[in-house]
Specification:
Layout lengths: L6 H36 L6 H22 L7 H35 L1
Helix pairs in contact: 1-2
Length: 113
């Protein structure tokens, strides 16, 4: 096995990169448009939680495409994917847990002190 790509494999890889770039561009444009229009047009006095959730989901979608296509994680074996992705998920869970616990401590501190 020489490790060289055929012309068809090369064209397929280039097509996947352009497709991912297009997805990332569309998601980014939608994210910026919603963020700019949310306060002025859609909900001038409304809650910000839907905007926050939309931005988080759009960022996760962009992160998925970056990791899957540009970092070639889509083409790796499942064991390597889990070795990389599970510690990341545990780290995100730890950050959420610490923020949750910190806000509980802050609430108790304002009651007792």
């Amino acid at each position: 096995m020489s490790g060289e790509m055929t012309h068809e494999e090369y064209k397929e890889q280039v097509s996947a990169v352009w497709k991912a770039t297009g997805y990332l561009s569309v998601i980014t444009i939608a994210e910026v448009a919603v963020a700019l229009l949310y306060d002025f047009v859609l909900f001038p006095e409304g809650p910000r939680m839907p905007l926050n959730i939309f931005v988080i989901l759009a960022s996760l979608a962009k992160a998925f495409y970056i990791v899957a296509i540009f970092m070639h994680m889509k083409y790796e074996r499942q064991a390597l994917q889990m070795t990389v992705l599970l510690p990341t998920l545990f780290l995100v869970w730890a950050i959420i847990a610490f923020l949750w616990e910190g806000s509980a401590w802050l609430a108790l501190r304002s009651i007792w002190f």
